[in-house]
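Hi support team,

I've been running sequence recovery on a batch of backbones for a student project. Most finish fine, but this one hangs at about 90% for roughly twenty minutes before it completes. I'm not sure whether the input is malformed or the queue is just slow. I've pasted the structure tokens below so you can try to reproduce it. Let me know if you need the job ID as well.

Thanks,
M.K.
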């Protein structure tokens, strides 16, 4: 019998995903880091015939997220005045580079947790803009920091998850003033999972 892959979208916390502003502009004011991270994190699950195949948590490092993160880091470092301004300015400059998404992946078979293998990975990862165009990552690298450090930054990291950083070229306008939605899709021979960020 031919196996049919299932496309499953599971919203974080079991409730409707919060809308987010999909602008590429730096926010006038940085928000609360914990709240912003929750707003920009999406979760999805791919289930096979007998067990869970993949669990995904993805946090989009939007300008809003970068601003909140930079301010939190400045607080932790006790930065004030010019040093604090420099910290925020660097984060603003960073957001003009590649789009980044923190991917936290749990697989039933650990051998399938191989996103850092590039084209040799069993998974195909793309961003999908609102016109349906696929944007391939320029690279996916493993976040090799200690798990407790990553989890402090990204609470979506599960106990058995492996964190990765996926980067996508800024040449394709994934975010912008008129963008209403952007999706992240992961697929393999066993099926696919997709999560979505939508504007209000």
């Amino acid at each position: 019998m031919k196996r049919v892959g299932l496309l499953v979208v599971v919203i974080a916390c079991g409730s409707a995903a919060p809308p987010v502003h999909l602008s590429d502009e730096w926010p006038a004011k940085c928000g609360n880091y914990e709240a912003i991270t929750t707003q920009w994190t999406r979760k999805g699950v791919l289930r096979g015939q007998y067990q869970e195949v993949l669990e995904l948590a993805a946090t989009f490092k939007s300008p809003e997220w970068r601003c909140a993160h930079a301010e939190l880091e400045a607080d932790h470092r006790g930065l004030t005045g010019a040093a604090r301004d420099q910290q925020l300015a660097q984060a603003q400059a960073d957001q003009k580079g590649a789009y980044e998404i923190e991917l936290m992946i749990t697989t039933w078979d650990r051998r399938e947790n191989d996103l850092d293998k590039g084209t040799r990975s069993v998974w195909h990862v793309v961003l999908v803009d609102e016109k349906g165009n696929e944007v391939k990552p320029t690279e996916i690298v493993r976040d090799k920091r200690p798990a407790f450090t990553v989890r402090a930054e990204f609470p979506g990291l599960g106990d058995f998850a492996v964190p990765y950083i996926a980067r996508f070229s800024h040449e394709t306008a994934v975010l912008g003033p008129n963008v209403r939605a952007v999706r992240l899709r992961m697929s393999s021979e066993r099926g696919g999972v997709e999560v979505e960020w939508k504007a209000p």
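--
Follow-up from support: It reproduced on our side and the slowdown came from queue contention, not your input. The chain has a mean pLDDT of 90. No action needed from you.
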